[in-house]
What does this fold into?
Amino acid sequence: MKVRYPLAYTIQPQHVSPGRHWLTISLKNLGAASLTALDVRLNSLDAYSLNIYKPSHDVAEIASGARHELQFQVLANATAQLYLTADGRREGQPFHWETPGVRITVGQEVARLTSLFVLNAPYVQRDEHIRCEATIQGLRDSQGLELQFWADTPSGDLTELAAIDTKALKAGEWVRYIAEFIPQEAGLYTVYGYLFDNDHRIDRKTDHVYVSEAARECANLC
It folds into this structure.
């Protein structure tokens, strides 16, 4: 079991086929005090890929040293991460608990978008080139995928930066692709990378970059 004190936890299974499945969440109270009036939630970091039908369960109490199991039904479309939260009371005081993401693999993955980075993050100046790099890992032999780069601008416009047909990938092969753009306004940009196998989106990543008006502003922020 993984531990984020005061609870140890597992999410099983962590590899499923596409479709509806039941996941079992096991919790163990490692602390000295009982946890009461808990609202335990299973949360998806990508609801398109992994959607949870009933994300919340009430748990009256998990006593010190006790275990508790919960069942959550999910619709699995593609690999994504889930995380657990719990809100309740411990020794009469409000209590919040949250886990890191747990990766649930769906089906036989063709490839994975392992990273997306804005290479000149976190601060650049307006009218300066911004380079975005995505790294793809092949997990099975494929004839090629589509990689899309998008940017959400400070004014709220979503702009496509590039749509790239990747080379044919072999299992275990790593490739990198670059997209560039010149920001026309100052503020916070969110850059998205989407990986498609035909019309099926199989992975996505995000990164952020702050664009300043002038070098002086950037120096003050840095």
Observations:
- Confidence is low (pLDDT under 50) at residues 216-220.
- The helical segments are 215-221.
